[in-house]
Specification:
The chain has helices spanning about 5-10, 95-105, 125-135, 140-160, 175-185, 365-385, and strands at about 35, 50-55, 60-65, 75-80, 115-120, 165-170, 195-200, 205-210, 230-235, 235-240, 260, 275, 280, 305-310, 315-320, 325-330, 345-350, 350. It is about 20% helix and about 20% strand.
């Protein structure tokens, strides 16, 4: 097994087993403290500034003010990726800086179009991943993380939803858990008619070859146009110049009769499209990300939490080396003063885990495209008399 494959195996939190651990008591999601985000309170979704600094190719900067919605007809329910530094195999229920930062980077912007719900859950931790890499795995309960997400979902449906349309949003471990939630808690139930879409970044969703649904999700098709609802959008991102290796895990289904879906939030119908990326202006999330980017060659500071680089990135879904992935093109000009590459690769020192592509910026690359889809899908849902 190659080094890259070893890293891919131990980092794939949603697919791992672990030494047995004592059964933990369920969380009470009626308690406000067990949520990172809920409507009508000050939290990680409602308080950070959403303003964006747009950096043009010539280095010109424009600050765009962004306001949250004062009333929303739709809800968004988010499950965050692997990020906890807690010492155990499963995280605790205390939201630390890393949880707050990922919500600000990946989910708070949805507060411009929907009410935001984000439960804290006892996820597989980075400590557990590292313990696997060193050959001394610490105990981790793989069901605990899903049970938490499921219990939070059930509480949301019972106490908060009240028939409202909703969008599911996840990344990496969070997307894997939401995929299971759709299969077990939504498909075949009344809630399915309320789902605008599930935006599942950084995970594989399998379908029979040539089909738009089946396999992982039996009744939920791929979103192929912006006005489609009750559908799934899923993608894994790779540089156009560094496609997934032939032995990689992303973009492939384990069954040769199946394939994974790729749906680009910026162009659900296919083809190359400029993506509306939104990046944290400072250091990225987690210790696998490089230092804060130099947005212009003069390294002038950015005063907003978020940066846009119009026209720098474009992407399309492609099949390469047998994998269906979002191929990302960087339209860089080394002669201009703007940054040429924001990064996003999974690095271990000088080593780049090519199996993982641009996993760290799966969401950031198409952040505004994801948000912009919500009102379009909501309008289509209303037009159908839902």
């Amino acid at each position: 097994m190659t080094t890259a494959n070893i890293i891919a195996v131990v980092l794939a939190a949603a697919a791992q087993s672990a030494p047995a651990v004592p059964v933990a008591a369920p969380n009470d999601y009626a308690l406000e403290q067990n949520w990172l985000c809920r409507p009508d309170r000050r939290d990680a979704c409602s308080t950070p500034s959403l303003d964006v600094t747009e950096v043009a190719p010539d280095g010109t900067r424009i600050v765009r003010a962004v306001k949250r919605a004062t009333a929303s007809e739709a809800d968004c329910f988010y499950v965050y990726p692997t990020l906890s530094y807690d010492a155990g195999g499963n995280s605790d229920m205390i939201a630390n800086d890393e949880e707050h930062r990922v919500v600000e980077a990946q989910f708070a912007r949805f507060s411009t179009v929907c009410r935001t719900f984000a439960p804290i859950y006892r996820q597989s931790t980075l400590s557990w991943l590292r313990s696997n890499m060193t050959g001394n795995p610490i105990p981790m309960d793989p069901e605990l993380r899903y049970n938490d997400v499921r219990d939070a979902w059930r509480r949301y449906m019972a106490a908060d939803n009240k028939g409202r349309p909703f969008v599911l949003v996840g990344h990496s471990q969070g997307s894997g858990l939401l995929k299971r939630l759709i299969a077990e808690e939504i498909e075949g139930k009344p809630a399915a008619t309320q789902m605008l879409s599930a935006m599942l970044a950084g995970t594989n969703v399998a379908v029979p070859k040539g089909k738009d649904q089946g396999a992982d999700l039996k009744q939920t098709p791929v979103c192929r146009k912006a006005g489609q609802t009750n559908c799934v959008i899923a993608w894994t991102s790779f540089r156009e110049t560094s496609p997934p290796p032939a032995n990689g895990r992303y973009g492939r289904a384990p069954d040769p009769a199946q394939e994974t879906i790729c749906a680009n939030p910026a162009a659900l119908g296919g083809g190359m499209a400029t993506v509306n990326a939104r990046f944290p202006s400072g250091a990225g999330i987690g210790d696998l990300v490089a230092d804060s980017p130099r947005w212009t060659k003069d390294n002038a500071p950015v005063t907003t939490p978020t940066v846009a680089v119009p026209g720098l990135y474009a992407a399309q879904c492609v099949t390469v080396n047998g994998a269906n992935v979002l191929s990302v093109r960087i339209n860089a000009d080394p002669a201009d003063p703007r940054i040429d590459d924001v990064g996003g690769d999974v690095r271990f020192g000088a080593f780049i885990a090519q199996d993982w592509g641009l996993h760290l910026i799966d969401v950031s690359l198409v952040m505004q495209d994801m948000v912009d889809l919500v009102p379009v899908q909501l309008a289509a849902w209303r037009a159908r008399g839902r």
